[in-house]
Amino acid sequence: MNKKRLDIIKEFLRYAVVGGIAFVVDFGVFALFRELVFASDGSAALVVSTAAGFMAGLAVNYVLSMAVVFRSDSQQKKGKTKKAFFVFAAVGVVGLVLTELLQFLGEGIVGDGLGELGKYAVKLCVTGIVLVWNYAGRKIFVFKGE
Q1: How far apart (Å, rounded) are the C-alpha atoms in residues 129 and 102?
Q2: pLDDT (tens digit, 9 = 90+) per residue, 122-135?
Q3: How is the chain split among helix, strand and coil, in percent rounded to 5?
Q4: How would you label 66-92 residue by residue, b for 16+ Cβ within 10 Å and e otherwise?
Q5: pTM, whole model, 2 decimals?
């Protein structure tokens, strides 16, 4: 395996750890909103809870990504501009749309088959899919060629 490929794998693994931390924040806020703020399972509860969790996770992801994932001097220079932050956030917004869509579809497919755990099982699956999108999108659109 060549050095460049190995470096990308290491970077993705760091991103996955950062994503895991951001996921804990995302999941915690999602659960807090879903169980305490909205004591119901309506569509509004789903949309707002998912969005609130995702936004909190996005903020944590940006800070930690700049600190431990995209560490080279050129990545730091590219990533700390206003434009880069907005592109980073835009990739996150696409991720949010994917999250909302996949969470809605997943809960519709799972239905009541898994009871209360169904919505959380779907959330875990959706998070894995969106993790790959977020890394690839940010690598391509924010840190081009790095």
Answers
A1: 9
A2: 988 998 898 899 99
A3: 85, 0, 15
A4: beebbeeeebeebbeeeebeebbbebb
A5: 0.74
